UniProtKB/TrEMBL annotation:
Transmembrane segments: none annotated. This is D,D-heptose 1,7-bisphosphate phosphatase. SUPFAM superfamilies: HAD-like, Nucleotidyltransferase. Keywords: Cytoplasm, Hydrolase, Metal-binding. It comes from Saccharibacillus endophyticus.
C-alpha cells in the first residue's frame, strides 16, 4: 500500500518565516510569532524541514552563505537550500526554478510528491507545482498582494496554473493544516480488516464520460420515486459527474431535501432495500447531512446527501454545478487540481474532498 504521508516541508524565509517585503540580513531577521514553535512541531511530528530561499544579497557581497546557514540551523532547519545568485544570472536554483527542490530530493532521498512548499510568493508556488510538491501560500509578506494579483487576472500561463493547494493566514496555520492532513492520511493507511472494501477503496479519477450525466439523472429520478412517500420531492444530481467534460471519481452524487429527520428510520429502510448503506453522522463526521452510499460489487456507485430545508450547502452545490456547466475554462482548472490532489490523497477520500473546498469557495465567490 502506498503511503502518501508528508515527508518534508520546504519553507521560504522572507515574508513566510518572518521579516517582510525587504531583505533582512541574518542577525537582524526576526521570525513571526510562534513561527519557531511551528517548525518545532513539524520536527516533533517526524517531518524534515528545509529552507528554500533566494538570497541575491550573497552575490552582491552583503552577506555570505554561512551566515544564512547558521541562522536557519538555529531556527531548527535540518538543511538550508539557498540560491546565492542574482536575477538574470541564469542559475537553476533561483525560484521559480526547481533546482533547490531537486537538489534537496537527491541529497536527502526525498519523494517530492510527498513534500510541501510554504511560501508567500507566486514564484514559490510555481517551483512547488513544477517539482510536484504541495504548494501552500501564506498571506503574510507578499502573500496577500500576490493573491490579489491572481484574482485580478494578473498572472498567465505557468503563473496562472500555479494556484496553491491551500491558502493559509500565516505559517502557523499552514503547519496546522499540513499536520492535520498528515494525521488523516496516516489514519487512512491503518487499514482495519473490519471495514468493507468499498469504505477504503482507492480514489481513481476517470476521464469524463457522458454516461454519468444520464445515469445521474436516472438515479435521481429513481430516488425521488422511492422516497416520495417520505415527503422527499427534490433530488438533484450534483458533484463532478454532473458537470459534462470534467474527469471524476466515477461515483454519482445526489442530494435530496427532507422536511425533517423524524422519519429517517423509514428512509434508511427504504434505501437499504436498494443497496444504499447508511453512514451514521458519528462516522460520517458531517453534521449538515445524512449520508448514504450505494454499493454494487464492493464498489461505491452513488452517494446520497440528505439535507434539511434551509441548509446552505444545498444552494452552494447547485450554484457551483451551474457555474461550472457554463465555464469550460474553470472545468479545465478544476480538472488539473483534482488530478493533482488525487495523486497526493490516493488513499484518503476525506482529505481529498477537504482539499478541494478552497477551489469551490473561489468559484462561489466570483
Ligand atoms: Mg518570500
Ligand atoms: Zn541560484
Amino acid at each position: 500500500m502506498s503511503h502518501p504521508t508528508l515527508q518534508a516541508v520546504f519553507l521560504d524565509r522572507d515574508g513566510t518565516l518572518g521579516g517582510g517585503d525587504e531583505m533582512i540580513l541574518p542577525g537582524k531577521f526576526e521570525c513571526y510569532p510562534s513561527a519557531l514553535e511551528s517548525i518545532a512541531s513539524l520536527r516533533a511530528a517526524g517531518k524534515r524541514i528545509y529552507s528554500f530561499t533566494n538570497q541575491p544579497v550573497i552575490a552582491r557581497g552583503q552577506a555570505c552563505m554561512e551566515q544564512f546557514e547558521q541562522e536557519l540551523q538555529a531556527f531548527g532547519f535540518e538543511g538550508a537550500y539557498v540560491c546565492p545568485h542574482e536575477h538574470g544570472e541564469g542559475c537553476a536554483c533561483r525560484k521559480p526554478s526547481t533546482g533547490m527542490l531537486l537538489l534537496a530530493a537527491e541529497e536527502n532521498g526525498l519523494d517530492l510528491h510527498r513534500c510541501a512548499v510554504v511560501g508567500d510568493r507566486w514564484t514559490d508556488m510555481i517551483a512547488a507545482k513544477e517539482a510536484g510538491c504541495l504548494g501552500i501560500l501564506v498571506r503574510t509578506g507578499a502573500g496577500q498582494a500576490e493573491l490579489d494579483r491572481y484574482e485580478r487576472g494578473g498572472f498567465s500561463e505557468r503563473w496562472q496554473e500555479a494556484y496553491p493547494l491551500y491558502v493559509a493566514e500565516d505559517l502557523n496555520e499552514a503547519v496546522r493544516w499540513l499536520l492535520e492532513k498528515d494525521r488523516e492520511e496516516r489514519g487512512a493507511t491503518l487499514t482495519d480488516p473490519d471495514w468493507p472494501a468499498w469504505a477504503t477503496e482507492v480514489i481513481e479519477i476517470k476521464p469524463a464520460d457522458p454516461i454519468w450525466l444520464e445515469k445521474g439523472t436516472q438515479e435521481a429520478e429513481h430516488v425521488k420515486k422511492l422516497l416520495s412517500v417520505h415527503r422527499i420531492s427534490e433530488v438533484e444530481h450534483i458533484g463532478s459527474t454532473s458537470i459534462p467534460g470534467l474527469p471524476a471519481k466515477p461515483i454519482l452524487d445526489l442530494m435530496a431535501r427532507i422536511p425533517s429527520y423524524d422519519e429517517l428510520d423509514d428512509v434508511i429502510a427504504a434505501l437499504a432495500a436498494q443497496d444504499w448503506h447508511y453512514i451514521p453522522p458519528e462516522l460520517d463526521g458531517v453534521p449538515s447531512r445524512r449520508f448514504f452510499v450505494k454499493v454494487k460489487n464492493d464498489k461505491r456507485q452513488c452517494h446520497l446527501h440528505l439535507m434539511l430545508p434551509n441548509e446552505e450547502k444545498w444552494d452552494k452545490q447547485l450554484c457551483f454545478r451551474n457555474i461550472l456547466r457554463e465555464r469550460p475554462d474553470l472545468i479545465q482548472e478544476y480538472a488539473e487540481l483534482k488530478s493533482k490532489l488525487a495523486e497526493h490523497y490516493k488513499d484518503d477520500r476525506e482529505a481529498y474532498t477537504h482539499a478541494k473546498t478552497d477551489f469551490v469557495q473561489r468559484v462561489l465567490n466570483r
